[in-house]
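thread: overnight batch results

M.L. [08:02]
morning all. the overnight job finished for the chain we discussed friday. pasting input first so we're all looking at the same thing
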Amino acid sequence: MSITFDWIINPIVLLLAGSCGIIVGLAITRAKLMQARARISKLEADLLNSNRETLDAQRAFVELESRLKDQAIPVIPMKITGKEGSKEKLTK
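M.L. [08:03]
and the structure it wrote out:
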């Protein structure tokens, strides 16, 4: 006696397997898309926070600079007096 296997493809089982595969694929894709959107929103929040810190630092710098302009700070100008036309030639 020889045993043979006849594969019978049931269209209903094939349809159910295909639709389950599509649903699982869509669920995985949707989960990845949600993770990407969450990461993008987190990066946007970090960027806005960084920009806010930069603007605060610039605002503090401008305020400090304006306070220093109002004060009289003695500065001695450094002028180098030298003759530009008479450059010495070095000889060996």
